[in-house]
Amino acid sequence: MRIALAAVALTSSALIAAAPAVAREPVRPTAEQAAAALGNPLVQEAAARALTQLVGIVLDTRVGPAAMLSGPDARVRPDDTLRDLAQRDDPYFEERLYEGAKRSMGTAAAVAGGAAVQAKELKRTADRLEAALAPLLGAIAPERY
Asked: Given this model, what pLDDT does residue 75 score?
């Protein structure tokens, strides 16, 4: 599992490093749009597949050449990849990674939806506070209000 997490971290780092190469005008969806997209099973499926493919690229990294540096009980063989090491600990780790990515998208949808609702409510509260405080602030500093 630690190897899979390391692979995800490496993939994230690679994506961040590659971002300037594919940079365009940023598209800024609203929280509601993000929640709707993240909650869409087709989007969840596509994102899980994309993440799995990206992690797969990292998992194909050969680590065998570093075997002599890892110690005798690390079980690293000369031709091993990160995938080989991860599969020894959990033969189903890639399936678990894929399913976990799909679940994470559902969680992200719920968070985005909750954030959108909460942001509106906070704005409503701020507007009410501003209206309630306006007379007091006007009396204290009339030139500013």
From this structure: 81
